[in-house]
Amino acid sequence: MERMRTCLVAVALASLCCVAHVRSSASDHRYKAGDEVPLYANKVGPFGNPSETYRYFDFPFCSSVPLKEKKEAFGEVLNGDRLVSGPYRIDFLSEKDAEIACKRKLSKEEVARFRTAISQDYYFQMYFDDLPFWGFFGKVDNVGKADPRDCKYYLYKHLVFEIFYNKDRVIEINVRIDPRAVVDVTGDEPVDVDFMYTVKWKEIDVPFEKRLDKYKSSSSLRQIQWYAHDEESADQEEETGWKSIHGDVFRYPKHKSLFAAAIGCGTQLFSITIFIFILAVVGVFYPYNRGALLTALVVIYALTSGIAGYTAASFYCQLEGTNWVRNLLLTGSLLCGPLFVTFCFLNTVAVAYKVTAALPFGTIVVIFLIWALFSTPLLVLGGIAGKDSKAEFQAPCRTTKCPRDIPPLPWYRKTLHQMAMAGLLPFSAIYIEIYYLFASVWGHRIYTTYVILFIVFIILLIITAFITVALTYFQLAAEDHGWWWRSFLCGGSTGLFMYAYCFYFYSAQSDMSGLMQTSFFFGYMACICYGFFLMLGAIGFCASLFFVCHIYRSIKCE
């Protein structure tokens, strides 16, 4: 709305300079105490449609008798101006306090018309001594109301004019409302309205020649005073786009136990990757010693299980979860479950083909013991520590009781399309290096440039974080507050692109064939890409969480 308002004001100001010049030739704008200062009502219309304007007295406001139409200049007619004598009498240096302009009994039809206008953000425009000001008809109270039928509609009935003058000339006019003076027009029944106005005069030393400077400066457009300028309505006007959903943006996600488990597993995989890179850089994985990498993966996975348990349980409790034991079981099985199922299937295939890739029974027992004696206890200990950490989720804004409806979104803002956009750019940054990795893991090449691989990994993390933050901002700007899972899915979508690349590599870049080799390639690559999905998803969510908390700390959320 702020951007639309600026555009609307700019359109009006485009003709203001010419209008002011034409009108100033007919009046020198000098007044004596008690002289009536001309006030003209111009036009009204829905704020979202600047070209859709109507005459002011097409609505049942107070009207002066008789109505005096001001002769318009050619440019004013083209601009849609239709000035008539306004409903309020303002005399130079004469103050008024809650003066009744008129009393109206609105019929049911007139009440319905005002209600419709308020729902469409109707505004009006007036001129006081050729100085324009704008205002809204009323306000809609929709706080905490999920159903639009539960909203309340209020018509403003009291204007407060604050007029600044220099000697015998008017310099500036500010208009605000009395927030206590409203009329409920929600129901379909006649309503009595006392339209009132207050006038206050203040002297300043700004010369008359500079009174239009604030209108000419584009940086000062926000200084133009609107009808709903009181603190309450000003907050509502500023709450547009991502600001308007501050009461819902920190509403906890659905399936929060699964979400916390995914964050915990992703954090563990990130830790494993960092440790592997450290070992690689110091020269542990020298050529033709592939067994060292696999051994390190098993051992480091077991030892970092506590990180997954602590992160998942702590975050789950911050989300006000209560069944932390179930959360730990989910954390322990979210990664191990798919790995176990895949391993059982592929090892069965290997045994059937009698290849050396089939693990002996003794090796399987050792892996099971490592999982049972190290990984699981550390996971539980980490979970207990996370549960007892008593950490609280520090949301910058208070969450409302009733969730706000998410407006209909265009197709390109749906989750799958956002994931496609989020994963493409990070994947394109690592595309070349992935080929050499695949050629090493699934071929006979030796990979030794771990430093370059580490740099590429850092680039991957940075791009993933930035692209996820950008998409999260666009999502919030569209007033879609379901960003928790979306940020995770968008961050992890690079793993899906990696798996899609597997099909290209298999068919175009390798000579692999046969059921056994095909099963091994796509089976284990599915596990690897799934791990990347969890890790990058956690990175994307953490970056988005930091960004969202930062921007919502900068606004007033009460």
Question: Can you offer a commentary on this structure?
Answer:
Helix content is 51%, strand content 14%. With 558 residues, the protein is α+β, with helices and mostly antiparallel strands. The protein has 2 domains: 35-211, no CATH class; 256-554, no CATH class. The longest helix is centred in the last third of the chain and has 39 residues, at 515-553. It is elongated and about 105 Å long. The relative contact order is 0.09. Residues 1-26, 218-226 and 228-238 have low confidence and may be disordered.
Amount of beta strand = 5-15%
Largest sheet: 5 strands, antiparallel
Give the tally of structural domains: 2
Question: How many alpha or pi helices?
Answer: 15
The share of residues in helices is 40-55%
Overall geometry comes to elongated
DSSP strand count: 12
Listing every helix as H and every strand as E from the N terminus to the C terminus, the arrangement reads HHEEHEEHEEEEEEEEHHHHHHHHHHH
Mean pLDDT: 83
Unreliable parts = 1-26, 218-226, 228-238
Instruction: Compute the CA-based radius of gyration.
Output: 34 Å
Straight-line N-to-C gap: 21 Å
- Output the structural class: alpha+beta
